[in-house]
Structures are given as C-alpha cells and as structure tokens.
Amino acid sequence: METLIQQTINGLVIGSVYALIALGYTMVYGILGLINFAHGDVLMVGAMTALQTMLFLMGVAPGMSPLVMLTIALLVAIPVSMLIGFTMERLAYRRLRNAPRLAPLITAIGMSFLLQTIAMIIWGRNYHTFPQLISTTPLQPVEGVFVTPVQIVIVIVSALLMIGLTLLVSRTRIGRAMRATAENHRTASLMGVDTNAVIAFTFVIGAGLAAVAGVMYASNYGIAHYGMGFMPGLKAFTAAVLGGIGNLGGAMVGGVVLGLVESFGAGYIEHLTFGFLNSSYQDIFAFLILGLVLIFRPTGLLGERVSDRA
User: Fold this and answer.
1) Is the four-CA dihedral 6, 302, 174, 207 of positive or negative sign?
2) So what family is this one in (predicted)?
3) What is the model's pTM?
4) Would you state the pLDDT for residue 123?
C-alpha cells in the first residue's frame, strides 16, 4: 500500500508538469493544426534563463529570500520564453500556414535543433545544478510515504495555472476569439477577429506555461542542461495525443494519466518482468501508450470524431 501511495504522488507530480507542457501543444494544434516540436525546447530556455537569473541574484544579493529569488527568476524566464514563442510564430510558422503539412513539421524540428544549439553555445554542454530554493526535505504524511515541499508546490501551481487557462479560454473575449479561430480561422477573420493576433497570443501563452513547467521540472530533479526539453516535450506530446489533441481538458487528463502510468510502471516493472527490466526503462510506457492510442483510438480519450463531407 505504501508503494501504491508513493507512486501515485510521484505520478501526480510529473503528470502535472506533462499537462502544462501538453497544453501548449494542444492549443497550437487546435488553432493551426500544427505540431510545434520546438515546444519542449522553449521549456529548456525557460529553465536555463531562470537558472542564470538565480545565479546572478545569488552573486549580487546573497541574502535574498529564496521565495523572492524564485519569483524574480520566473518573472524573467516567462517573458523570455514568451518572446521566443512569438518570434517562432512570426518568423518561422506564419508564412507556412497555407503550405503542405510537411513543411511546418520540418520547420518545427529545425527550430528545435536551432534552440538547442543556441542554448549549448550560451550555457555549454555540461549539466548544471539547479538551485533548490524550495525545501526538498521529505515530509512523511503517512508511514513509509514521502513527499517534498517542492512536489506539493508543483501540483498546486500546475492546478492553478490549468484552472486559470480554462477560465481564460471559456470566459474572456480573447478566449472566444481563440475558440472562433480554432473553429474556422477564415470565417473568424471575416467576422472581425484578428486571427494573426490570436494565433500569436496562443503561442505566447503556451510558451509562458512551458517556462513555468521548465522551472518545475528542473526544481524537481535538481538539474538543467541544453537538451533537457526533448524528452518531457515528447512525453507531453504523447499526453496531448492521449487526451485528444486540440482539447484543453484532454491535455490535462492525458498529462496526469501519463504521469501515473509512468510512475506505476517504474514502481512495478521489476515485478511485472520478473526482474528482467528495472525502473530505468520507464520511458517505454509513454511510447507504448502513444502506439496503442494511435492504433485503437486516434482521437484520444476526450477527442471527438469529426467526419468530412464529400
């Protein structure tokens, strides 16, 4: 029972991060039909920018409160990531909206390599220790079950951001414009919606969420490096497909479900394979789920079947 509770906690923590990243994928796909494979690298830029800001603050104001330092780091990392998201949309994707689907896909992969290369030039190839500004001392709410304050903060902040995004899309004017553009961007444009601004805003919001997710991811594992965005980005894409890509609720559900499956798999894989595999093979579950979903339910858990008229 202790193992089950522990793996559930671990799954909720990493699943919350996957859900935040998946929201960026699903918003862009819902409006443009584009898979932005550079989204995971925006997460990396957010984490590395926050790391650089923390190191600078530690040098000029070593007595600063850790909470204030983390807040300042986020206030720097989020705008930087938003600027990158806006620049990618404006320079790389806008001209390819009417191009064959393969062109934006190749461009997205190219943008991913470009961001990684720039980050490698700036911060180097080495792994960097990410400052633990929030206590990592394990708490023991139940005998044999451990949870750190960092993990608690990750789940709470992720939940608040997901609720905030849901309210933004469903209750605000820009949210209605986003839904109208996702339904039919040409018709929305004829009705007076500035679709270019809406699409740019979607990239900016997704990049901001990715920056927060990057700081959370680095804080949870205590490291950051130029290639850290690839694997969580790929898993978040799997989460978006699992929940139903283009569906905000689906991205949230898919992220949490994928985190739980991955965590349970890591905890029980040795028992299931009679010791043949260990927890280092936990990534196999994410891609196994992706394959099964694409085979048996391509629309995802909350996706809707759409029929094309002849």
Assistant:
1) positive
2) Belongs to the binding-protein-dependent transport system permease family. LivHM subfamily.
3) 0.90
4) 94
